[in-house]
Amino acid sequence: MRSLRNILWLTGKELRAIRTDRVMLVLIAYVFTLAVWLVSDAASTEVDHLATAIVDEDRSPLSARLSDAIRPPLFAAPVPMTAGQAAAAQRAGEAILVLTIPPDFERDLHAGRATTLQILVDATAVAQAGNGASFLRQTLLQELSAALTPGAASADPVTVVFRNAFNPNLTSSWFSAVMQLMNNVTILMLILSGASMIREREHGTIEHVLVMPVRPHEIVAAKILASGAVILLASLFSLVVVVEGAMGVPVAGSLWLYAGGAAIYVVAVASLGLLLASFTRTMGQFGLLVIPVIVLMILLSGGMTPLESMPDWLQGTMRTISPATHFVIFAQAVLYRGAGLSLVWPEMAVMAGMAAVAVTIVLARFRKVLAG
């Protein structure tokens, strides 16, 4: 009972310290509101008004029809250019796609001679260029079919019908908004937990704590509880108010189930932040140490690129050492697909195991630091 009172008292002390850190409060508010919206909505990889140029060397009714078929919202109105102008536009980054229609294109088609349309793609914009080229090719083939064989029925014996589950319109912001929120939980949890330790050292208050009748596990538990509670509440607010409310992203699963999994995750990440802070003495040193950890956890979590696209050895490594990988799998299943506890409990169990290991390691390290 005394240990619980000590933990609660120390947790209150940590919360008061966070409340007086105005820079940290502003950072938390920004990261869980404006940053989520900016990254997910403004930084879109969808094909939208893609800059297109057309080199029409045929100047026939059919080439004009193909040019008219390239229209918003997928493509910007195509700009007629010469071959030299189109090449210069692509070098300047002003045209992602360049369609070239050769001379006598319509005449060759009606005469039954083979002919070619050329699409030059600026592949530096990988996602937009790849999808845009596919959409442009499909648009051209549909328009050519309608022009050359009007009213012809499809010769395909089977009709394949697509249904997009969980994201009917393939809106990228639905995915990126939730994933950005997950990334922000990771970033802020590492920074806030580590900062709580560095703050004690830089202000000299760690000596005051050491002369109090408290034990190392009570100090660690209080730091994890305080920083974890702040980040968990901020993430829930962002999910409900910003992602679901302001951005209109539907959340399919249970908010309580997500909160339970996120609570386990923040314990694991907070322990990691404290562990990293135990090897440093200033915020500058801690920042240099935590940045590569954040980059690896986020880029290799499966939230930005599919986990299945990584080498097998890297998948196994990340599943073994990083709770972020399991948190992304858990969050996607609950928030996107509406999965229940029966489907996500293995990921929650793995995160709990990682949290237990992390807490054990940071306790051992913390005792060593305090003894020194």
From TrEMBL:
GO cellular component: plasma membrane
Compartments reported by the entry: Cell membrane
Cross-referenced InterPro entries: ABC-2_transporter_component, ABC2_TM, ABC2_TM_bact-type
GO molecular function, one term: ABC-type transporter activity
Transmembrane parts of this sequence: 21-40, 174-198, 219-243, 255-279, 286-304, 348-366
Keyword terms of this UniProt record: Cell membrane, Membrane, Transmembrane, Transmembrane helix, Transport
Signal peptide range: none
Membrane-related topology note: Multi-pass membrane protein
Domain ABC transmembrane type-2: 142-369
Gene3D superfamilies recorded: abc type-2 transporter like domain
Pfam families: ABC2_membrane_3 (PF12698)
Similarity-based family: Belongs to the ABC-2 integral membrane protein family.
Protein name per Swiss-Prot or TrEMBL: ABC transporter, permease protein
Organism encoding this protein: Rhodobacter capsulatus (strain ATCC BAA-309 / NBRC 16581 / SB1003)
Lineage: Bacteria, Pseudomonadati, Pseudomonadota, Alphaproteobacteria, Rhodobacterales
